[in-house]
Amino acid sequence: MTKKISTTPKAVLFICLLLLSLVNIANYYVNSRINRLQTISASEKAADASAPTPITDAAKEIGTTSANPILEENKYDLTQNDILLGQNFIVGIYGVTLDERTKNFLKLVKPGGIILYERNYESESQFKKLISDLQKLSLAETRLPFFIMMDEEPGGATRLNLFRNELGFIKPSWEKIESDIRKMAAIGANVNLAPIADYPFNKNAFIKTRISTNSPDELKEFNKNFIGLLQKNQVSATLKHFPGIGVFTDDPHEKPINAVVDEKIFNDSVGIFKSGIDAGARFIMTSHASYGNIDKNVPATLSEKIITGLLRNTLGFKGLIITDDLAGMPFINDPEMDLAQATAQSLAAGHNLVIFSHNNPLAAGVYGKLLSNMDSDSGLKIIVEKNYRDVALFKQQYLSPAD
Fold first, then answer.
1. Is 353 helix (H, G, I), strand (E, B) or coil?
2. Of 222, 210, 238, 277, nearest in space to 150 by CA
3. How far apart are the first and last CA of the chain?
4. In angstroms, what is the C-alpha Rg of the chain?
């Protein structure tokens, strides 16, 4: 037989008082915990604010006192998306002087670097002055020096006619090669978009005319020494075009390439880049080709699997990753994607820098579209801010404000 619980008024009152006491005890405990957590949070924030950071060190390196290396006397801050985004861009310019049109374009985009071509060269003294004027403008606008980039490939592309008579690769003339590297450094170049790491695995490979080597091992050895000499002379080396275009008969700079590459050849190609990474190369430029064995129908330029998955995570590359030119090369294979969207996707894939070599209005248009999207696209803003910090820290470590 079940015993009935007393429901007299006294019993009900007792139960209500008991419950009220329990509620008060619970509230006291919760409020105490909240106050404790707020105190801890405030202490942690104060500690974080006083702790030195790499960005603070970068600021000191370029002569400012702010934790943000583009800040001086509160002129700029991290809410200025134009400066953050600009450091993600590398652009070309048209003339041999820093004229008003060029100056206005550079003030608009605030790029992280300039890529120079034969069209910019008239004489050695003119070229040095142009680079000096560019650096003064960059420091005035962003408090960071420009990357001054050039293509000077041993036996391949050239802008200043360097490295022309110093090869074969079997017994290169390293003294002459280093002499030419010193010429690059003396005029103000601080990044060489070389060496090529694309071994011509196909006897009809288009890249064969730019490579004079008899085996992947010879190319690895040459690149190792070339990288060492460049960086000994304060010119950062760039391996290109990851993960390798040496198997293609057609040039992905000129037409879309979508291929499934033999596994062994692909691994051998990637191995050449790994050798260059181990040699200390600071930049890697990627390919516009699509590699169906890794990411079907997605150009390497836009492939997170290739850029972040393979290059960053598998090979462990810690330097800066740069696209090939986006302005004039066929790499977008999605009819629904425009160039601004492709540029954003290349950044999302893992690139730190995007190149617009030959078309300033197009570069400014893409820059403007991305800039207008940054406030509403939190993912884009996070990527741009991270790249800004990576670029600023790289410049702190490897460039001086006078470069």
1. strand
2. 238
3. 96
4. 28
Q: Which residues contact 195 (CB under 8 A, 6 or more apart)?
A: 153, 154, 222, 223, 226, 227, 237, 238, 239, 240, 276
Domains in the chain with CATH codes: 78-398 (3.20.20.300)
Tokens read off for 205: 């490979």
Name residue 257's amino acid. Answer: I
Query: 161 vs 12, 50, 184, 195, CA distance in Å?
Result: 99, 51, 11, 15
- Closest-CA residue to 279 (of 332, 219, 328, 335): 219
Cα dihedral sign, 114-118-120-122: positive
Task: With 0.70 as the threshold, say if the pTM is over it.
Answer: yes
When the pLDDT of each residue in the chain is averaged and rounded to a whole number, the result is: 82
Q: From start to end of 195-344, where are the E strands?
A: 236-242, 258-259, 283-286, 290-291, 320-325
Instruction: Tell me the pLDDT band of 167, cut-offs 50, 70 and 90.
Output: low
- Closest to 159 (Cα-Cα) out of 102, 206, 120, 188: 120
